[in-house]
Amino acid sequence: MVISCASVLAILGFLAYFALPIFAGGHLGEIFSWEWRPFQGQCGILPMAVGSFLLAVTAMGLAYPLGLGICGFAHGLGPRWLRRPLLGLIHFLTSIPTVIYGFVSVIFLVPLVRGIFPESTGYSWLTAALTLSLMVLPTIVLLIQAQLQQVDGRVRLASAALGFSPAQTFLWVLGPQASRGLWAAAVLGFSRALGDTIIALMVAGNAPQVPHSLLDSIRTLTAHIALVVATDSTSQAYQSIFASGLILFMVTTAINLTLRRLQSGTRPAASHD
Amino acid sequence: MIKRLTSLAQACSWLAVVTTLGLVLLLLGFLGLRGFDALNPALFFGKTPAWAAITARLPVWHGIWPACVGTVTLVLLASLLAIPLGLASGIYLASYAPGPWKRWFALAVELLAAIPSIVMGLFGFALILFLKKTLAPQANTCLLLSAGCLALLVLPYLILMTQTTLEALPSELRLTGLSLGFTPWQNLVHILLPAGGRGILSGVILAVGRAAEDTAVILLTGVVANAGLPSGILGKYEALPFHIFYLAAEARSDAELAQGFGAALVLLLLTAALFLGAYYLQNTLAKAWKQKDLLI
Amino acid sequence: MLSRKKAALVLILMLTVILGTVPPLWAQDPLAPFKTLEGKIDIAGGTAHIPVMTEAAEQIMKANPKIRITVAGGGSGVGVQKVGSGLVDIGNTGRALTPAEVSKYGLKTFPFAIDGVAVALNPQNPVSALTSQQVRDIFAGKIKNWKEVGGADAPIHLFTRDEASGTRETFWKKLLKKGPIDAKANIVASNGAMKMALAQDSRAIGYLGIGFVDQKVKAIKLDGAEPTQENAKSGAYQVTRLLFMNTKGDPQPLLLAFINYIKGPRGAKIIQKHGFIPIQK
To answer: Looking at residue A109, what is its pLDDT?
Structure first.
């Protein structure tokens, strides 16, 4: 117990300690700027922050409707006998290693995107978003599902007695009742997408720019850490990765605290697979 | 009107399910087909005779055997560090009296669960830099460091799984022991743990699977592309997920790419086996307490 | 009848053949120095070095399993930083160390091969020669379509390396003359990854060590000069650099043996096999 507390504090402490020179040295404005040209002394990480945000949002935008559809399917919109195999499969998806999504995407999806859109290299925001959405899908489904399950037990008989079909129950009773779970799934799915490194690193192209289209190459904060971690340890470029780490840490923490408030009363489901 | 909306929603849900199934089939089929061809002794051992490689008498080149051994060692070490801590903390959160501390512990666990794995890796890397500057100039990124960071990464899952499993046991069960005059400790050891054992075990297995698949942590804490079998817990090592990551970007030939598919399939089979084990245990537990869907 | 001269010639020829194939007793086995050593060598840094390093490691570890050598990439910057902070034993760079780096970490440097940095395309691309100015404009993002340099009407896909790369530094200093690189350019993390990216994308342009050029990528003529290692050596092709191994302080016996092996005759063979030009001691 003490270890978990201590390690959370230690992680925060170390990140802060190594990011400190930025704040102390008055380089804050340089790190939080829009140009990444370390040779010219410009080490802005804002493009990466934007990249992280955009990628996570689009991945969620793709995955969330799918997830919602699947949950609806399992709770009345689809035939009941398919429910267990479907949820079993979704459960199984959580066990697929992230690097495998990335690997298949590099070999299969990247050339496909390049083939369809000649102006893109295939290593793009779009490719990463598609891959990432498949990866966060099970998290979303399982979170929504957990909430629906709770509500389902309470209202199923009542709504059946009122003459609702299972499909109608889902649309007008279950769904609205489970809205807190729907929010939680969206927020946690977002946090999971934000925290991914490997897929972004492998297929997003890693160009340190604010993208103008879905076909542009982007770099996330996580990929930025992985790319820059081993450059000269006193340079500003190096400090920028600790700033990136700190941002990620604070954002996920903020998300969790918000969620805690959102869910106060209900037990938070396991947040990651 | 309502009818039409309903059927529209139904159509959408079918679409979602079919799309997902299609994508998953595509992913697994592609990997299965390409990976299956690569599954042979040469994938694991290169040109080294298999037995000599397994008994570590001869080093393996151009095979994924060292990466497999590296991953297994890494995961065992991480489990060794994380499981006792995770179980103890989970039990504490589930059974002992609520106090002001408990809220903070629970919060810390949740925050720990939210930390992205690359940040955990960065923490490990920073820790080594810090140690080098202060206490131990010899400190270096290594197997032990990776295992430690991975242990921290999976710790919250273990804690949450243990806690949820214990709390999900029927409350009669909790009370029976106590009302028979058991101390809380006796109640825990003789009644609650045996009853929840399968659920906890499945949590452990899932955590192991998570440790086996993570790439971002080890990327910063000591994995390398060529190291041979791990030489000790203070040495650098190879690991399957990193090997796949590496080959995806740098396969120098079609043969190396085929090796990437083989390695990916092996890793998938490993995590899938762990998952199925955990799933089986969870289901039998749920059946045992007639709460079929509780743990899904 | 054979003349005496001919007989002597035949004899000499035979002797040379025998001496050439059977290693004479007095010539030292290049792996001999490792026989009495044990320990580990961690290598990281320059990615052009990786094929040479892994093959040398393989030979040495086969000869003496008590020696363990690990090889990682990362780029030249990584090599300097890691060897400087003691995280690895040998840090490779594809560029010369700066005086600041040498004095800050107390590094010793060992050049062992010459390599050129070639501008490379996908083999399907009809373009096979560019001027330096065209390359500068392409990387600056001024030229965006292949038809502007005599190719097909297709957008140009830029690939570059991360800032830790010595290949990038050589390319940037010697060819781009420190000109800008478009922020749109995709970033890959090693020479190997660059080769794979170029091999897959028919509209791509990038740059990589000549040692990595084979039939999968097309190295183009630059201002009329063919990017071959011979031209790199003679100076006809100007975008060149040396490949270095660096140690912190004077190398320990095992490290020294490794460095001598790389710089020795067997190392030279390995270096040549992977497309670089060895520097003789």
So the answer is: 92
Half-sphere exposure of C147 (CA within 13 A, CB side): 4
DSSP classification of residue B170: -
Contact B9 A171 (CB under 8 A): yes
B positions 96-135 inside 8 Å of C (CB)? 128-129, 132
| C-alpha pair distances (Å), B255 with each of B115, B171, B258 | 37, 58, 5
Output the pTM of the full model. Answer: 0.86
Task: Tell me, yes or no, whether C18 lies in a domain.
Answer: no
For B126, nearest residue in chain A (alpha carbons): A14
What is each CA distance from A15 to A22, A31, A247, B119, in whole angstroms? 12, 15, 10, 9
Distance separating alpha carbons of residues A32 and A224, to the nearest angstrom: 14
C contact set with A (CB within 8 A): 74-75, 77-78, 80-82, 85, 154-155, 157, 159, 162-164, 172, 183-189, 197, 200-201, 203-204
The answer to whether residue C4 is domain-embedded is no
pLDDT at residue B95 greater than cutoff 80: no
Widest distance between CA atoms in chain B: 75
Residue C70 and residue B236: Cβ atoms within 8 Å?
yes
pLDDT band at A171 (very low <50, low <70, confident <90, very high): confident
Q: Which residue of C has its CA nearest to B48?
A: C62
ipTM, 2 dp: 0.86
A touches which chains (3+ CB pairs under 8 A)?
B, C
Which residues from C are below 8 Å from A200, CB to CB? none
Q: What percent of chain A has pLDDT over 70?
A: 86
B214, pLDDT greater than 60: yes
Sign of CA dihedral A111, A113, A118, A122: negative
CATH code at position C186: 3.40.190.10
C15: Cα separation from own chain's centroid: 37
Say if B1 falls within a structural domain: no
Compare all CA atoms of chain B with the CA of A89 and give the residue at the minimum distance.
Answer: B21
Distance from C-alpha of A37 to C-alpha of A35, rounded to nearest angstrom: 6
Residues C235 and C256 in one domain: no
pLDDT of residue C143 exceeding 60, the answer is yes
Using the beta-carbon criterion (under 8 Å), do A98 and B215 form an inter-chain contact? yes
Fold that domain A44-238 belongs to in CATH: MetI-like fold (1.10.3720)
